[in-house]
Amino acid sequence: MVNISDAEWKVMNVLWESSPRTITELTKILSETEGWSKHSIITFLKRLDAKGAVYYEEGERAKQYYAKIPQNEATLEETKNFLNKAFKGKIGLMINTLVKEEELTEQDLDELYEILEKERKNR
Questions:
Q1: 6-67: what fold?
Q2: What is the pTM of this model?
């Protein structure tokens, strides 16, 4: 899978939200939210293209950029990488750490419980 940097994730999120996007459109959005210049965005797009994460088609007046990899696949891969790096691949260790450090709210715990119960019933 593709290794996407934090800055590249921001570009990908805009493309996943709505594609295609031109460099002008991306610049308008990302200069407001991130303060990035057109040149920075072009650099990120070139890197993402080289990694196979985006592609473009020649438009009537400008290149039209699309996300090439689905968001759910990229998110799952990033989650697995984080889990392996920080918690040796053990989701129980991660949840235990969050619970002990009181990082999970009652609402978070209820939601997690519902997710697990639903999955248990589906198996």
A1: Arc Repressor Mutant, subunit A (1.10.10)
A2: 0.82
